[in-house]
Write a structure and sequence with these properties.
Layout (H helix, E strand, L loop, with lengths): L5 E6 L6 H7 L1 E3 L6 H8 L6 E6 L6 E14 L23 E16 H7 L16 E4 L1 H10 L5
Parallel strand pairs: 1-3
Antiparallel strand pairs: 1-6, 2-5, 3-4, 4-5
The protein binds a DNA duplex through loops.
Length: about 160
DNA sequence: GCCAACGTTGGC
DNA sequence: GCCAACGTTGGC
């Protein structure tokens, strides 16, 4: 049996929180308008796991776990003129942006704050703690992922 | 609000 | 292809 890949995906809790995902059960991770982040998303496979990271809030932290349900979905917001993610440069014959569908897996009882993460890992081990990192989607090394699960007492 | 670290844009 | 100007992200 092959192991899944692990990822970290950021969201501002004011925009979309882990609690909202728990309520929704699943959501389209749309509105990504950064090529590096998009390209990481394109590498995702069904059944991969992703840590949910709350960014730009009182306590930036890894707060939960998601499962990748579907990949390579055309991001509908790029064609929606009423969306703040509307992209006039994209076109339907060659869409510029795509996304994945994620589902709720777990809300961690113990969150791991950015401050804690900085004490535990280097920027090489976990890109989120790298100085100046702004990527909203990054891969997570499998060994580090397992370590994070232990640290948060994950049931997973 | 500041600012570092990028990414994007557009003139040349 | 270079690079200056500008925009965005996100911790602090």
């Amino acid at each position: 049996m092959t192991e899944c890949n692990w990822w970290l995906m950021k969201s501002e809790p004011d925009a979309y929180s882990i609690d909202q995902l728990e309520e929704d059960r699943s959501t389209l991770w749309d509105g990504i308008r950064n090529y590096q982040a998009r390209n990481f998303m394109r590498k995702m496979k069904k059944k991969d796991k992703a840590f949910f990271y709350h960014s730009n809030c009182k306590l930036p932290c890894i707060c939960g776990l998601m499962k990748i349900e579907e990949t390579h979905i055309i991001d509908p917001t790029q064609f929606d003129k009423n969306s703040k993610y509307f992209d006039p440069k994209s076109n339907k014959s060659n869409p510029r942006w795509d996304c994945v569908k994620v589902s709720f897996a777990e809300k961690f009882h113990k969150e791991l704050s950015l401050q804690q993460l900085k004490g535990l890992y280097t920027g090489e081990q976990l890109i989120i703690v790298k100085k100046g990192n702004r990527l909203s989607i990054t891969p997570v090394n499998q060994i580090i992922a397992k370590d994070i699960l232990k640290k948060v007492n994950s049931n997973f």
